[in-house]
Amino acid sequence: MKILGVDTGDAGRRGRGEPGSLGELIGRNAALRAAFAGDTPRQGRLRELQRWQSQRLLKSHDDLHRSPRYRLAVEFFFSELYGAGDASWRDRDLMKVQRVMERLLPTEALRALRLAVELEVTSQELDVAVTRALAPGALTVDTYASAYRAAGHRPQRERQIELIDEVGTYLDRVVGRPIIRGLVRLARGPAHAAGFGQMQEFLEHGLAAFESMHGAQEFLETIRAREWRSMERLFSGVGDPFEFEAAARRRTGG
After folding, report:
1. Residue 137 has what pLDDT?
2. What is residue 97's predicted lDDT score, i.e. its pLDDT?
3. How many distinct helices (H) and strands (E) make up the chain?
């Protein structure tokens, strides 16, 4: 189906290697949010871990966050897409409108949305595994690193990093086509009227973040390289896996 000459929906392009349908991914995401249902201590530990990781990501990419060009993209990835607290509203909104979205959303925007939900699913699966492996007591770089290695799942860790790059690449393509941005924005009034305003704002924040960069290649390459290096250091068991201590020494000349 085309709207104003733009392909919408699947357009027959989903095939082998593609993520599941939007509905399947949303269902998995909702189930993962209830992974520790009835286990209040572990629910609290999971939330603590996710807050800690969100702050770690912002610290690792502080220079990008301080850049006017990249600030919105950093906040979108590490505060809204990941670390958004209770985002169950997003699952509810998506489940209600996913069939309409799969028919009418521009194909590239739909692909970006699917990948974003896959990224959230993957991150939640890994967070649950690390939470199970965490030792009691304070959450520090060392206790996190030990739980990270104990949880394992290296292929999923690699996929998680690749998904950041893939989501960003599709969003960058979407903002490069003004007519697609326009179609998404045309949905603003109907979305708010139908009670899906939060979902609409989430989509628009992602587009605004990438539009403000005027090209995302350097940003995405930097994130990928840093996170891949951190993953290698965590699995290798080296000290200072995120290189925070090394950065502090450089700043102080120590």
Report:
1. 93
2. 60
3. 13, 2
Give the rounded distance of the alpha carbon of 151 from its chain centre.
Answer: 20
Per residue in 57-92, pLDDT (tens digit) is 999 999 999 999 999 999 888 877 775 555 665 666
Q: Where along the chain do its domains lie? A: 21-252
Contact status, residue 27 vs residue 121, Cβ threshold 8 Å: no
Between CA 164 and CA 131, with CA 17 as vertex, the angle to 5 degrees is 50
Answer whether 8's CB lies under 8 Å from 106's CB: yes
Residue with tokens 């520090």: 140
CB 206 within 8 A of CB 108: no
Rounded-to-integer distance, Cα 227 and Cα 224, Å: 5
- pLDDT tens for each residue of 98-108: 665 566 566 77
What sign results for the dihedral spanned by CA atoms 219, 65, 241, 54?
negative
> Hey, what are 219's tokens?
């940003």
What string of DSSP letters covers 80-148? IISS-S--HHHHHHHHHHHHHHHHHSBHHHHHHHHHHHHHHHHHHHHHHHHHHHPPSS---HHHHHHHH
